Amino acid sequence: YHAKSRGDHALRWESSLDKHVASRMTLEQDLRQAIERQQLFLHYQPQLNAAGELLGVEALLRWQHPELGMISPAQFIPLAEETGLIFRLGRFVLEEACAQMVRWQESGLYMPRMAVNLSARQLTSGYEHEVISVLESQNLAPTRLEVEVTETLLIQDMEGGLSVLRALRELGVRVALDDFGQGYSSLSYLSSLPLDVLKVDRSFVMKMDALAEDASEQGRGGQVASEQGANEQAIQLVGAIISLGHSMGHEIVAEGVETQAQFEGLKRLRCDSYQGYLLARPMTATAIVERYGPGN
Ligand code: C2E
Ligand code: MG
Ligand code: MG
Ligand code: MG
After folding, report:
1. Helix 127-137 and helix 86-106: axis angle, to 10°?
2. Which of 78, 86, 202, 215 counts the highest number of beta carbons within 10 A?
3. Of ligand 1's atoms, which has the minimum distance to the CA of residue 150?
4. Which segments constitute the EAL domain (predicted)?
């Protein structure tokens, strides 16, 4: 009896594992073909200054799967990294993003800057040459490109990645640290990184809410008071991050600005640049022209 039940269990487990593996392999095959079948494309999310002027956009990869619909990059980027497909995907993103800058220009929209996300695995030695060749083929100045990397990326493969970033910066490409605050870098490590921009992670911005309007309505429940305490703490923390970044000579971008209160709070803290659903969602290249192009 005992053995049989264990056998059944093992069988059930095995078959669900098979399914899991099979679907992963199918997804991997689908992803391999996705570029040729033109299922991959970019959305662009504006980055604005406090006055609402367009400073640039961040390219965000999208996959329209024929059966599964839109698949989030949070799901397929890790798969692409594990399978090595990230090299082809990354090349596609860089080429498409740079080509789009030229297309916008032709339709009368000057886009000051394009930010592109890079995965850890892409930053192998010599990667700067790929960037140079793409920029040259589009006749695009390096200063109009920004690459976004994460802290974890830099911790995993220190020297190789860092020397690529140094080479890119020497060319004039800007380097941004994405999702700042999510990682565990020490301050001395942070100050040693070759960076131009810190992007304050959305999780900090999220907590900066509801204080501005409600500050006058005191004396309500303890609940409100403690929420305001947490909010005040978040504002202080983001303020400290911004001062720290500025003291290192970096520009600060706030990610995930969703409410007017967050926007106002960040402006008071002298944040340089703002990105989030409140200001603009990621959108197609055409939507960018409709919103920011000539005649708008
Ligand atoms: P990320 O680089 O930190 O990009 C910001 C993410 O936050 C995007 O999600 C964006 O759509 C979303 N977002 C922007 N504003 C708001 C907001 O106000 N509220 C909320 N809740 N979310 C907001 P998305 O497009 O799903 O991308 C997720 C992640 O996938 C990116 O995070 C990035 O790490 C990765 N990714 C996207 N495209 C690429 C790519 O071309 N290459 C690589 N290596 N990674 C990419
Ligand atoms: Mg990013
Ligand atoms: Mg980010
Ligand atoms: Mg993020």
Report:
1. 30
2. 86
3. 34
4. 24-296
pLDDT tens-place values along the chain, 296 residues long: 444 455 555 555 556 656 655 677 788 999 999 988 999 999 999 999 999 999 999 999 999 998 889 999 999 999 999 999 999 999 999 999 999 999 999 999 999 999 999 998 899 889 999 999 999 999 999 999 999 999 876 776 667 889 999 999 999 999 999 999 887 777 888 888 899 999 999 999 999 985 444 444 444 555 666 777 788 889 999 999 999 999 999 999 999 999 999 999 999 999 999 999 999 999 999 999 999 999 88
Instruction: Give this complex's ipTM.
Output: 0.98
Atom of ligand 1 nearest to the CA of 178: 3
Please, are residues 115 and 58 in contact by the beta-carbon 8 Å criterion? yes
Measured by CA distance, the residue closest to atom 27 of ligand 1 is: 73
Pocket of ligand 1 (CB under 6 A): 45, 60-61, 72-74, 77, 93, 117-119, 148, 178-179, 202, 256-258, 275-277, 282
